[in-house]
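Structure catalogue
Derive tokens from sequence
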Amino acid sequence: MFPYTLLVVILFAALVYANYTVSFQSLSPGSSITSIVSGLTTHKLSKGLCKEGFSGSRYCILYSHTFDARGISILALEEKHEYLWQRLALWASNPYLAHMPSSATMKPSFAEVDVPGKGKGLAASRVIFPGEILLPERPLILIDAQLKSEYSPQEIISLRRELAASLPEESYQSFMQLSGWHEHADPVDSRFDSNSFNINLDGEDTFHGLFPAVARLNHDCRPNLEYNWSEDTATMTLHAARRIEKDEELTISYVRGDFSSRERQSRLKSTWGFDCACSLCSLPSYLQEESDNRLVMLNDSLRMLDSNRLLPADKPAIAERLVHLVEMERLYTLLPESYAYAARAYAEIEDKHTALKYTTLAIEHGLRILGAEWKSWRELVELEEKTLKPNGRT
């Protein structure tokens, strides 16, 4: 019995491996395979249009109508297709996702509303507490960032149309319900440019990802949500950066919060086509100038702390100034890193009590606001254990 059972296991493993490692370059457009990716769940993968770029490389559409229950469409270099499908298989079978709240099982915490001057938006339907996960979402569309260097603008529009058309009908309609600000632009192209996020795969490959639910969030220069991309689970997750009251609009920032008011307005206008009227941008000019001055000092503090020119004894004061400026500017997503700078500065001068205080604040705020994807938290745990508590005491 044992050899027979072992043979069955080996044959089954070989079948799964063969499905994962099929040569996608040999597939012709319109062909498909079925790959076992998650227990009894199977997903049919299809190859769509392929087109040769300026460099001679071929970019092709890869799509599944069943992935994540709503489908996914990818436009990428043909040589990356095998790797991408293996990633899809890994994402679909990732056990971590079984423990993640989903929009289908979570108690509704927001609703779509009309927002004066903005059109549609999302608002809290109950009080949301700091650190709450609101919406884990997988990408509906992924486009290789190298695409723009390979085709003319008109060819890119044509490829994006083909990509959108490869989506299931319901998902296509969800995509087309998003706003696109370019009045005379192609409707598909405009919606993608206005709503996509830059994400990394395999550490280096940059893709533009579209997440329809996340894309419905409006901008605020001082947002109440932070979005975080996890390559391990292929999930964009929203965390509450602070307490959010019932009926308060949910917002993210489309630009970096430490940019000056003029730079923020310029980028928002050129990329998304609107003039920001958030609470910060609506301040009187003299108060905006004060805010801009604080941002200059904030960035100067960061540069000084990142340089090797400061003496250890000088770092705590600069780090304290950084923390104060971040708190003054309500840059909640920068709080964890500012606390981390302070923790390192005090650890360096062996002020263990203050270092432990800031280490605790950094870890608490970092995991709460930025999630497990925050890169500094493991380093800070080691700092706490090895430097601050070598004998289990502070």
Q: What stands out?
A: Residues 101-135+217-282 form a domain with the Beta-clip-like fold (CATH 2.170.270.10). The two ends are 59 Å apart (CA to CA). DSSP finds twelve helices and 13 strands in the chain. The longest strand covers residues 41-52.
